[in-house]
Amino acid sequence: MTRKILVTSALPYANGSIHLGHMVEHIQTDVWVRFQKLRGHECHYCCADDTHGTPVMLAAQKQGIAPEDMIAKVREEHLADFTGFHIGYDNYYSTHSPENKQFSEQIYRALKANGKIESRVIEQLFDPEKQMFLPDRFVKGECPKCHAQDQYGDNCEVCGTTYSPTELINPYSAVSGAKPELRESEHFFFKLGECAGYLKEWTSGNNPHDGKPHLQAEALNKMKEWLGEGEETTLSDWDISRDAPYFGFEIPDAPGKYFYVWLDAPVGYMASFKNLCDRIGVDFDEYFKADSQTEMYHFIGKDILYFHALFWPAMLHFSGHRAPTGVYAHGFLTVDGQKMSKSRGTFITAKSYLEQGLNPEWMRYYIAAKLNSKIEDIDLNLQDFISRVNSDLVGKYVNIAARASGFIAKRFEGRLKDVSGSALLAKLAAESDTIAEQYENREYARALRDIMALADAVNEYVDANKPWELAKQEGQDERLHEVCSELINAFTMLTAYLAPVLPQTAANAARFLNLDAITWANTRETLGEHAINKYEHLMQRVEQKQVDDLIEANKQSIQTTPASAAEEGKYEKVAEQASFDDFMKIDMRVAKVLNCEAVEGSTKLLKFDLDFGFEKRIIFSGIAASYPNPAELNGRMVIAVANFAPRKMAKFGVSEGMILSAATAEGKLKLLDVDAGAQPGDKVG
Ligand SMILES: [Zn+2]
Asked: 140 alpha carbon to ligand 1 midpoint, in Å?
């Protein structure tokens, strides 16, 4: 029976580049979609850029362009990155679309008619300078618990405490720096608490067509935590409105109020699909009506389960639509066992990977070989990446075609012998249902392990039958023809097994094999007497240098990327323990700046004439980038190390000490000061 399936990946946000973390999800989804299509099912893969909200609005303002222009540009970049990795969407749309506006309003009106929307007045921090309410992430201040500075309004990155932005000490707007005021505003709430009964049922339910659960076991456990046990619920209502100025859709009959970006983002799945349906003539309602017999799956990251497994099914159900068939979450990507890092060069963008000329199918294969159906983080180990791709794809798989095709071309005019009775091929065909089941259940790692075991069996067969020796022996033509035909058939079967993961190689192989296309039927059918085309090289090996260059290309020093400091923990590690005696060896003194000036021929150095009380000295300090106007330092006090050996500074002169400064997480250097009353020459300690 032909299944009718709609599949989505989470919508990338239109403010930032696609990196390998996104790629994990889109590869996972794409492999599944391609598998369904190879099996002959009607499967539609829809995605879009998620375009609304304050971050997009502010980023566009910063660039001095309209948000519409920014999101159009970003969408093109995103789509180019995904297409480069052979992600085969049927539609990649935008949440800023007429379809999405229409569905968002329609769902909202239906929820309202159903008594599920309520308005309440809430208090929220307001930026008086920018004249806007501030989302939690745009308020910063001192953590009320550990007193770390510059923490976000929702949680402290130093001690991990979560709080409300109004609890921050000395809060300030991250947009303007102004001190925010607490103001009242009317907000609209989706009464999610009232949906708890339905959600308890749905989250622990199975879909009717195959009895498989809507959610993974780990996700269900998380939902039970959020939903509470028994009749009680701990689920709170959901604030779905934001005040102007906001980039999004205005709420019907509520001027100045906008749908919160997370309301219209999942509706973007519907909108993207509707846009596709209108183009290709598919019946949209058949997929979204309440009693739909079609299937709908959402592939997402574990961090957005809450939205997809609670809000979204409730929104759909209580507005008269079908709920998802399955929501499948995956874990995060680490590189070499650590969080992706800009300073280490492991925050790898899709664009850089493609620009460095690495084959996207290498990454597709490696990631698929790590993925299973669980919500587990997966690690990209760069050495393992090189060795696994080279050994599996080049060494085991592509080589089979390379070793047999020459004999078929030279000795048998490119014609295969009918080898339908081959025991080797029977062995490969026998795995078709098992491997299909593994793809279906998103157990890609297991599927690829089984496929490579089949490739091993084929290579053992090559070594046992040695076609290159048969070719030299009298009267072995028939046998040579048979062995090489078996190998080309085996290669065809392996190609079909790998086709969901390696679509480009499968297409190239289809040309060489003289087939219109590879389908799942090729995993169990032999080709018979069939003419093939000339073999052309299908895949190169990964070279160590390519990976080294990729990492180098992605390396950004913390000095130049303020954003990375926050991502990686703001504070430098505390140095090794030192003794009091160690400390006392360093003689630090108060000094007065007599004159400070830029150094000709250096962009880094400033030249300080200093009064140490007991003598005058010249010190060069590499802080020019932080103090563009050096004369303003004249007359102030600094702290300097007085007992370093004098140091020759290239052609500029001798430096007689070191001025102390604090290195901020943003890579700026800030001079130390001393309270009034201290004199030049005073000892610091
Ligand atoms: Zn804290």
From this structure: 12
